[in-house]
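User: quick one, fold this
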Amino acid sequence: MTMQTTIAARDHVEPALCPLTDMGVIGVSGTDAEAFLNAQLSRNVHSHRPARATLAAWLDARGRVLALLRVLRAGDRWLLLTRGADDEALIRRLSLFVLRADVRLRNLSSQWFAAAAVGRIEPWLESRSVALGSHRGDSATANGAFLIRIGPRLVYLLSADAAPTDFARDIPAGAEQSAALEEIRLGLVNLTPKLSGRYTAHMLNLDSLGAVAFDKGCYPGQEVVARTQNLGTVKRRVFRFSGQSEHEPAAGTALIDASGKPVGEVVRAVNIDESRVELLAVVRIESASGALTCAPERGLALTRESLPGE
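Assistant:
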């Protein structure tokens, strides 16, 4: 059985524990760590509310998203969770803004194990006496591991152990692509180095994902985000599509309308089985419901699928 077939077979079979090999962990410590993060990110973090994993963006002055992070309080430090990013490059770039503050950034990725529980996971959580909230970003700790609610069928597991044996007990191993499929169905983009700095927060639907706050103080790109929100000048958004294909279109692959004009580009894709693919693409809003194909496979007709909140 191929990996793609395994994903299809488990699309409705519950649950599975899938590795997240591209999960990065950056530690932020020091007496000024919270103030530093609040000055840089699109959402405030709060040390007095540790049971949250805040989804936030780091933007440049043009309002382009450089990194998409989940910010989690862990004892006397913060953990920044990345997906598919160049963590060393991100640390170097963030460090330029530390100046004289008491802030230390370290790459801790090799010290943490990351996985995702995918499927009908509530009975699995209950069997381990984990009380995890139902809202996106709710977190809980159990046996030294962090659990983070990403969606109804998706929970991240983060452990400083090589592998959390208690949580892996009595749950089959799943393919990493199964977690990617659930993330795509939630509209979550992995901001890889190729995509960093290409899109505004609204293009990536970060306003509807709760990753930007419109009532917080200044942060890089805040004026652009506020102006876009107030004036309603969003021309492109992330949309979800499916199609028949044996191959995953690479990030940056163009979407073509019926006239042959490029109207968007793929930002994330995953094969469900040997002949079907689901993807997220940043597309011109007026073209999203039209007849679209995916270059260079001009025969790959795409069907628009729904995202939460649509």
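User: anything notable?
Assistant: Residues 293 and 300 are 5 Å apart (CA to CA).
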